[in-house]
Design a protein that fits this description.
Helix content is about 70%, strand content about 0%. The chain has about 325 residues and is mostly helical.
Length: about 325
Amino acid sequence: MNPDFYARALASLNQQIATAAATAEADVEAHAKSLVEDDLPKIDSAVKSYLSLVAARSAVASDIDVLSASAASSHHVQCTFASSSKSPVDANRWALMCARTLLSAINSTTIPDGESAGELAADNANNNNNVETKSDEEEKVRAQLQKDATKVVAVLWNKLVMVAKGSDNAKANQMKPSKVLGRESLLVAYPYIEERLRRGALLADNGTDAPSSVEDGSDASTTNPLASLSDELLPPVSPPTVIDIGQWNAFYTEFGHLLGNADKGNDHSPTMEDDSALLWSCDKGSAELQQRRELRSQRATEALASVDGAKAAVADAFGASAAGSEETKQE
């Protein structure tokens, strides 16, 4: 083989490798930058909006609402803190306590390295989004892209957690994940956050210090791969004091549901209310609230028209009956 040809080929290969590495690094930096600058609203804002939603819902709730929220399935739980003469509560205070605990868990959770951050989180996203049947090649490419994006989020998220933990000054406080990142990042981190909350709730409900691997009668490891991770990686988060465990479970479960449901807003019927838009839309729910006002106005108009129609029908029937009676008398 010609030595010059070999040298040129090797140099070309090295240049291609260097170019590919530089491109990959640039792509990672661009993605990280978009997570910080373009992913709006931020997590902190969404949690505050959720706090307001739960407090407003609780203001008009009844005891029946509370019972149904704590007993309902986790597929679409609605959290409610309602007062009664027998058990008065400060719904605003309770919702605030839950929101603070949730934010504390968000800002203190690190995404485990390696397989946990890559495959488990990516598989979770794939299971939620894989609606159509795709070719094996397309599936492999999509899965790899998802894992790469997940790893970028994990690195950025964990760095922010460490910065916030390492200092108590105001600047570090503004570098918390909830202050810097938005929904796209939280979608990756929330399964780990929710697992910590689940473990804390289980311990509080059992009233013991038993390991979180002790389940409540169900085999969670078969449905939740994160259940196999140790408490050292995902330490339990204790529920807020005085809050009912069922209501606390409903609080963080509904938040997770609204987090995952936000990208399905276009699938909702125009006549359906979408609470996720109140948390995660860039207009902070303005369009959703306007649509709700218009729908309620339309329903009120239709109801009044129905009442007027019924009155007219009754009047016509009464008039026909009176006319018939008059004809009978004349005969």
